[in-house]
Design brief:
23% strand; globular
């Protein structure tokens, strides 16, 4: 299972990607959702599932970025560094 209920607030989380959680995101009138670091997700996929970068990116794009499981679906953030 890719997602499960995270807590009593009903936020969804990705199984096996806790190290990629960077916080929570909220917008006026919308549910608060977990926020994941895209690069960390890809890194986890490469390390855990022995995928190369292109395979990990394809998995992420299709199964996570492209998934909508309702109003509590996590959001994805690409961190910007100096």
């Amino acid at each position: 299972m890719l997602m499960q209920i995270a807590d009593e607030e009903g936020m969804l989380l990705y199984d096996g990607f806790d190290d990629a959680i960077i916080g929570m995101a909220s917008r006026c009138g919308e549910n608060t959702v977990l926020a994941y670091d895209i690069d960390k997700i890809i890194e986890i996929l490469m390390d855990r599932d022995d995928l190369n970068y292109e395979e990990a990116l394809e998995y992420y794009s299709f199964n996570m970025e492209g998934a909508y499981i309702g109003d509590s679906t996590p959001t994805h953030i690409r961190c910007i560094s100096d």
